[in-house]
Design brief:
Length: 268
């Protein structure tokens, strides 16, 4: 990743508590423009809490959260249209067609109806739903609904895309196809993206960088993956094992078999 590109996300020494429970403990992480980062970790590790901080739906108790230079829990206006989110459930509006669902984000940003229509058409075609724009969510399969949701998230041309396990509720074949398409779109468009997944394969297939979080959320393993490594099956298998061990709580996971680009972060 080009170190001269600006940070889109900066978390500095961030802590977040829910009552007496510490969900995030002095977490620091950055994401540069155009980078795709996967967040992994056991259930309860704090992945969704990190996403809430990035979306601005929760605020940190300590530390600094910056998204595109703004505090997402305060500077709503600065971040309008810069940040797009897709969730586990597709959250489509049932009374709007696929086309109208994709248009909505653009209309909310005061784009003209004609532009919204055009861009929604473009994006539906890009997620291979060019002929389904007139259908309502109830007439679409789960995979198709996820594609609409993805099109809606990307059509506004956000600076940052956040995805929290968007593909996990789909059958294996559908989710695999969707993941491939998603990876392709993210790479082709050079979108900055942070996605949460429980699937190590997804992370290795899509991300430039993988962060494994351990509860309370801190980075216990950080791996960078480049195109060369991605086609090296032995290297991928090593990284897979390493991530698996880190998720399982093995503190030595970062010291695995000589993968040159990895670093292990220990924060206090
Ligand atoms: N609103 C809340 N109120 C109280 N505790 C919360 C709240 N949100 C999260 N937590 C707690 O914070 C911790 C981190 O939760 P979080 O949802 O971020 O985990 P996660 O890594 O996303 O887990 P999963 O993989 O199951 O989605 C958990 O112990 C959870 O119980
Ligand atoms: Mg979660």
């Amino acid at each position: 990743m080009n170190a001269s590109l600006p940070f889109i996300i900066e978390l500095r020494d961030v802590s977040k508590r829910f009552g007496s429970h510490t969900a995030i403990d002095h977490l620091s992480m950055e994401v540069r423009e155009g980078e795709t980062v996967a967040l992994l970790g056991q259930t309860g590790a704090g992945k969704s809490t990190v996403m809430s901080l990035l979306m601005g739906t929760a605020s940190a108790d300590e530390g600094t959260v910056l998204v595109a230079g703004a505090d997402p829990s305060r500077d709503f206006v600065a971040l309008r249209g810069k940040l797009s989110v897709s969730f586990q459930t597709d959250r489509l509006l049932p009374w709007r067609t696929a086309q109208e669902n994709v248009e909505l984000g653009l209309l909310l940003l005061n784009r003209s109806k004609a532009e919204a229509r055009e861009r929604a058409r473009e994006w539906l075609a890009r997620v291979k739903l060019g002929d389904a724009g007139h259908k309502y969510p109830s007439e679409l399969s789960g995979g198709m609904r996820q594609r609409v949701s993805l099109a809606r998230a990307l059509a506004v041309d956000p600076a940052l895309v956040l995805l929290d396990e968007s593909f996990s509720q789909l059958d294996h074949v559908t989710s695999q196809t969707l993941r491939r398409d998603f990876a392709e779109i993210v790479r082709e468009q050079r979108k900055t993206c942070v996605f949460v997944t429980h699937r190590i394969e997804d992370a290795l297939e899509i991300a430039d960088r993988v962060l494994v979080l351990a509860a309370p959320a801190r980075v216990c393993l950080e791996l960078s993956i480049d195109a060369e490594q991605r086609i090296d099956a032995a290297c991928m298998a090593r990284m897979h094992r390493q991530i698996e061990r880190a998720i399982g709580g093995d503190a030595s996971a970062g010291e695995d078999d000589g993968i040159s680009t990895n670093t292990t972060k220990t924060q206090h």
